[in-house]
């Protein structure tokens, strides 16, 4: 039976294929493996490009001074991106599990299947966080990873620096999510586990750029809400897409619920992103005169693109989905998810780029020496 075309749908023969099978074929347009590979590639390439663009902000290597080596230079941001991507998948899987209809508060077989998937993602997240510990110590001590492992630096520093403590705490919480997810039967418990998974995202936000600088309270609060909203939004869309084939019967209502969450998260990510940026940038001109600022602008452009795709969904693909034509939704959501992964890559590069230092007129070199040694400390051109 060869597929014949009609003027509306070019791929399958409607007469020969029942509606459910039609939906099934549309939903298989995007394979899960391709999508995940596409996300990892997009995130990696965006991280690489943004890191190259911001290389001017990194302290130059000084001959004779110890250095962590190229393995750490490339593997540490890579491990950061893997942590963010696996965390987003774990959180997203839990979001979808709680968005699915239940029977009397009991999770359905589909939702329990998702809980088991969340357990696997949380295990990957745990491993990624642990792998980042020796890499972080290598960067902090400017010693190579083999030296860190050989010279007992792991034991010495793992529990004594803020960054490694945050990674270990994140690993521990991710481990808790991995262990509990497979045992949960009720939606209320699934909600509680979702809250735990979102909390597990946050420890590094308390040790990065956010924890330093004048406006660090705004920086920390802004960043924690920013990362939480991002994970709920990006994670749920990715999992909705990868699970769409098994959710045909409930895809439209679940997507409608997700769409409401997505709008709230989009606005939250934008507002907290701008607030967190403000907590780092002393003046607007830093947006185009510094590497950090330029990466922020790139993120704002990517967010606007995601906003436009969200609008397209509301105008086109969601009505088509409700009418039993999921293909447009699936295709557009696949593009959206890849852009989200790329933005996460850019965000990791941002978190590893030094924010511009706030100029304190009272703290410039001439001012300091004037205070210490009296005026003028620095020879003026006239003498
Ligand atoms: C207006 C748009 C946005 C702005 C201004 C913005 C701003 C920021 C800022 C200032 C940080 C803290 C970076 C640091 O540690 O110094 C951050 C972190 C982050 N942002 Fe955004 N953001 C925006 C949109 C997005 C979007 C659309 C996503 C994802 C889809 C995203 C994902 C993240 C992630 C994952 C981090 C944490 C990175 C890490 O530490 O691993 N952001 N963002």
Structure in a nutshell:
The protein has 383 residues and is mostly helical. The protein has helices spanning 19-27, 32-53, 70-99, 109-141, 145-150, 153-157, 162-181, 187-200, 216-242, 251-280, 286-289, 291-322, 327-351, 365-373.
Secondary-structure map:
Layout: H1 19-27, H2 32-53, H3 70-99, H4 109-141, H5 145-150, H6 153-157, H7 162-181, H8 187-200, H9 216-242, H10 251-280, H11 286-289, H12 291-322, H13 327-351, H14 365-373
Helix pairs in contact: 2-3, 2-13, 3-4, 3-8, 3-9, 3-13, 4-7, 7-8, 9-10, 9-13, 10-12, 12-13
Protoporphyrin IX containing FE is lined by residues 80, 84, 204, 208-210, 223, 226-227, 230, 234, 269-270, 273-274, 276-277, 280, 296, 299-300, 302-303, 306, 340, 343-344, 347-348, 350-351, 355.
């Amino acid at each position: 039976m060869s597929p014949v075309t009609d003027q509306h749908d070019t791929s399958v023969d409607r007469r020969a294929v029942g509606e459910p099978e039609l939906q099934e074929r549309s939903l298989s347009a995007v394979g899960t493996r391709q999508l995940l590979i596409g996300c990892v590639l997009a995130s990696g390439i965006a991280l690489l490009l943004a890191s190259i663009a911001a290389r001017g902000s990194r302290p130059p290597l000084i001959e004779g001074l110890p250095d962590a080596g190229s393995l750490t230079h490339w593997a540490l941001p890579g491990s950061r991106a893997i942590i963010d991507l696996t965390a987003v998948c774990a959180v997203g899987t839990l979001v979808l599990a709680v968005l699915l209809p239940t029977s009397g508060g009991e999770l359905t077989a589909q939702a329990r299947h998702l809980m088991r998937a969340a357990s696997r993602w949380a295990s990957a997240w745990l491993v990624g966080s642990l792998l980042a510990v020796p890499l972080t110590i290598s960067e902090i001590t400017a010693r190579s990873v083999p030296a860190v492992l050989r010279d007992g630096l792991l034991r010495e520093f793992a529990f004594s620096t803020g960054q490694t403590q945050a990674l270990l705490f994140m690993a521990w919480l991710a481990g808790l999510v991995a262990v509990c997810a497979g045992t949960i039967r009720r939606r209320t418990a699934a909600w509680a586990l979702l809250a735990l998974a979102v909390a597990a995202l946050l420890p590094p936000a308390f040790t990065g750029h956010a924890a330093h600088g004048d406006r660090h309270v705004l920086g920390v609060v802004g960043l924690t809400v920013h990362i939480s909203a991002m994970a709920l939004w990006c994670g749920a869309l990715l999992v909705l897409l990868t699970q769409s084939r098994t959710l045909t019967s409930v895809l439209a209502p679940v997507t409608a619920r997700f769409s409401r969450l997505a709008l709230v998260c989009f606005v939250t990510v934008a507002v907290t992103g701008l607030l967190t940026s403000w907590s780092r940038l002393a003046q607007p001109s830093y947006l185009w005169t510094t590497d950090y600022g330029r990466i922020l602008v790139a993120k704002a452009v990517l967010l606007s693109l995601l906003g436009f795709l969200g609008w397209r969904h509301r105008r086109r693909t969601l009505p088509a989905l409700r009418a039993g034509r999921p293909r447009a939704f699936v295709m557009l959501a696949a593009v959206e998810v890849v852009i989200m992964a790329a933005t996460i890559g850019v965000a990791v590069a941002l978190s590893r780029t030094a924010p511009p230092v706030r100029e304190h007129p009272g703290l410039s070199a001439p001012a300091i020496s004037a205070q210490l040694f009296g005026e003028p400390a620095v020879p003026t051109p006239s003498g």
